[in-house]
User: Fold this.
Amino acid sequence: MSEQIVTLRNRAGHALHCMLTRPPAGVARRDLACLLLSPGVKMRVAPHRLYRKLAGQFLARGITVMRVDFHGLGDSEGELPETQLDQLYRQVQLGRHVPDVLAAMDWLADHEKIGRFLVGGLCGGALTGLLAAERDTRVIGLYALGMPTVLDASGAHAADVMTQGQLNRVRGIYLRKIFDVASWRRLLTARSDYRTILRSIGGALGLRTRGKGGPSPVEVPAPATPPAANLNHGFVRAMFQLLGRGSPALMVFSGADRLHWEYEEKFARPWAASLARFSQLLELEMIPNANHVISDPQWLDQARHITAQWLDRRFAAAA
Amino acid sequence: MSAGAAARLDEQPFFFELAGERLFGLLHMPASASLGTVVCCHAFAEEKLWSHRVYVTFARELAAAGHAVLRFDVRGEGDSDREFEETDIETRVADTLRAIDVACDRTGSASVVLVGHRLGGSVAAAAAGQAGERVRGVVVWDPVLDGAEYFGSLLRSNMATQMATGGKVTRTREALIADMLAGETVVADGYGLHAALYRGMCALDWNARADLFRRPLRAIEVPKGGQTDPSPALKALLGAHPGSDAVLAAEPPFWRETRQFHRRAANFTAATLEWLRRPAEAA
Assistant:
């Protein structure tokens, strides 16, 4: 794998240090590049160099890969003002780094003569790609691993925005502690999280807390149920726009990751009726038992396989 | 500096070669006449990624203070060649020795100071022991004095993943080590750990390695609890090696996942700069 360092500048003038990899000799280079975007604060290589491990699937199919460091992260210039990670993640989820993605696409168009792009990556990288797709029709596909559908630091108590999947898991933990003296001591000395206990156990007993709801954006269909309090409406809007223009999206989730439940309960089910007409474009794949960063080699093999299958289905060279 | 106002920095990313393989480096050039060159040895695996931005800021602050700084990725990590599983402590030391040469060539310096973080500090000290006069001294942030113990912490991560995904630990620390020594690769946080790495790390025992102290060395220790002086064990260890000292500098554990976004280690940086400003004979 022969990589080239690319330093490009975003509109604010920050140098973004990126890594460009062209398809190997013998593989026809196509008018298509994949941008793998910084996940969280882990820079352009991603946890345990995940992006390097996945890049081969794209390169083998003639797709150029660029791994991008956002401004204020990795080696790039700029400073991010947040001191708390949830606040930083929130800004990512609101699209702070979209201009960096657009700058990277501009660079590839100018220097590599590439006009079509797949965008995404892990977690916040995937979401930034989706939000960039909303702004730029050169994006023809979304490649999303463990993409968040909610906004961090929404101000809500964690128990109020937990999915039913999370609540079921938490309830199991509490029920296992029912004969544990130390746990009862914590409960009776007010050191337990009563709100979480009430919502997790209460749900099983038929008690329900009221959803906070919120206005639906006009650009998207109305959900069947009120939106979750911490739903990222920007995600919903961008997803419907991407699908509405006929571009496919691959959503890969890890079995042991709460993000799957969030996607299902806060997006897929409430908008199931509206999403039905996009069933040919929106693909959901699960890696059973995997953690968020897909750290086990077996999970990684599955991710590679899923990626390869999707690329061959959606972006075969002859297409 | 706000995110909206870009200040141009003199930073040069590049690849350099070692035996036909490429290593990623980024040279931060000083804002004024150089006061000397520093080569940074990063922490290990995921600790490297969590602490990356702190190292970037540290390099920029040193450059602003007049030092040329080379940060680089060892093979198997970051953007350098090789799979992680094909590397060990020996490759990390070799990479550091090569980085020292590259830094001297690019800056015109005759010698460098190595700054190493966590396990990178042990690697830096080991490289300094082989580099002779090319290394003026070593600064180690939060030293890992016992490589075997550190390796145990990596295996705990494997066991935590067992718990999280399977609900129980089916392979204990001892079983993991036995399997590794029998030739298996054990994965922790996505990094494949193997016997050569284990043996190399176990050999990084500061109490048994006089060669780690061939060059002047400053250890910057993170105080625990109400600690006001470097720990007795560290003082005793460094006291046996003239030219070495230890100081305390409080920092949150920015090399692990916390709720904070860490971009700067002001106290580590200050303790490093104070040592760099000493006359060569004092250091």
Q: What stands out?
A: Residues 2 and 106 of chain A are 22 Å apart (CA to CA).
